[in-house]
Amino acid sequence: MKTSNRRFRALTGIAIFATFCLIVLGAVIRATNSGLSCPDWPVCYGFWVPTPAKLATIPNVDYTYLQVMYEWVHRFIAGIIVGPLVLVLAIWALTMRRENLRPGLFGIAALALLLVQGLLGGLTVLDRNSPWSVAVHLGNAQLVLAMLIGMYVSAGRPAQSALVWTEPVPRAARLLVLLVAALALSTIASGAMMAKNGASLACSTWPLCDGDVIPPLDDPMVALHFTHRVLAGTTALSILALFLWARSMRARAPGFSRDMHRTVGLVALQVGMGAAVIMLHVPVWTAATHQAMGVLVLASLVVTALHAAFGPETGVPRPHPKALARHQASA
């Protein structure tokens, strides 16, 4: 792998990590009710940097300085770190398009989604952190992360990167992994809706809902909570089914089996964290860890889908014909 390609993947890895931290910090903000601790946007109480001294001049601030800092740091990471990183990566990826077009395509998509994300962030504040705006904001953040992962994986080469499979997988497996990833994304968004509506403990026991397999759904909070559990259970069972299928073909598709082993392990941890959220009555650390694990499950599915899509049947990654001709001529 070229030195420039390694540097590109390293910078993309930094962007992926920063985006992951941003999403987890969002869960902390939601769990601590800090979403409106900066009531205006893009500034915070009219200040770009709200110091304690500056906030002391504002009457009737109903939030602690720590809550304000949660929101401000979230905006700082998004606007000063993740935003410029994605812009640089998108431009860099486009300069490599003759050798490998795919990172550039993912980069353009990531940049477009990031612009949407900024608008959604402002809308979330202006809409007073309504549950639907929080869920859409979080869902779009997952798509940004998925595009960054796409840049990272597609920049690898099959003979030089352990992150790319060397064997084909059935087309049905590719489609099912994508469908389960979409289901996982819906589950994460429903969790944000549930938490923002104050329904995290509408079912106060686990795994049953206050002793019922299917609780009475006339209470909207119980219905919202139970919907999240149904989506989570369906996602977990779907991943388990994919895992068993991958094991059955591990002799001819060991990469698929390895990826699904990782994913099902993350799901097991996520189920445990979901139970802890209920049993411990939603302390901040469990809420943040639960969302972090959900993001990791989705990221694992995205990686699996990319590996399946970029397997040898689809030519990973196919060099540009002119670049290939130049290489053959120089050889």
TrEMBL record:
Pfam families: COX15-CtaA. Keywords: Cell membrane, Disulfide bond, Heme biosynthesis, Iron, Membrane, Metal-binding, Oxidoreductase, Transmembrane, Transmembrane helix. The chain crosses the membrane at residues 72-93, 105-126, 132-154, 175-195, 226-245, 266-286, 292-310. InterPro entries: COX15/CtaA_fam (IPR003780), COX15/CtaA_HemeA_synthase (IPR050450). It is a multi-pass membrane protein. The keyword Oxidoreductase applies. It is found in: Membrane. Pathway: Porphyrin-containing compound metabolism. The keyword Heme does not apply. This is COX15/CtaA family protein.
